[in-house]
Amino acid sequence: MALIRFVAMPTEQARAYQRGAPDAYGNPPERRVSDGSGIPCRHCLRHVAAGEGYLTFAYRPFPTLQPYAETGPVFLHAAECERAPEGDVLSPMFRATPDYILRGYSADDRIVYGTGGVVATHKICGRAHEIFERVEVAYVHMRSARNNCYQLRIERA
């Protein structure tokens, strides 16, 4: 039985951006064409292939503005793509990067202090389990350890 699940950007959000909805700052997504260098789509959790279009936009994965609602740039296929299935196995897309930031949040979307840190990629599942041992943690964000960009959400299964 899985104890955690990795959760990609919700499809309704991805479709809105793909159709030109404004980002967290009120700007339209920027459109570019991938050179194949590893542009990570936050919806299908696969890289955008060379020659495919992609979007860059400011993403705030929180329901409301508040002091802990981090906003940052993310990438998304410009064309509709299938959402990555939720499961307890980290997408292969993330395995080429040595580490990520994991950070726990409470049900009211505030950082739970003491949960954040840079974690080696091969230790992400174990560290997520440890973070969820704290009852006040409702979910965990996985972010880039280099640029702090949002990658995905981790939830209890």
From TrEMBL:
Q: Which InterPro entries match?
A: DUF1203
Q: What is this protein called?
A: DUF1203 domain-containing protein
Source organism of this protein record: Neoaquamicrobium sediminum
Lineage runs: Bacteria, Pseudomonadati, Pseudomonadota, Alphaproteobacteria, Hyphomicrobiales
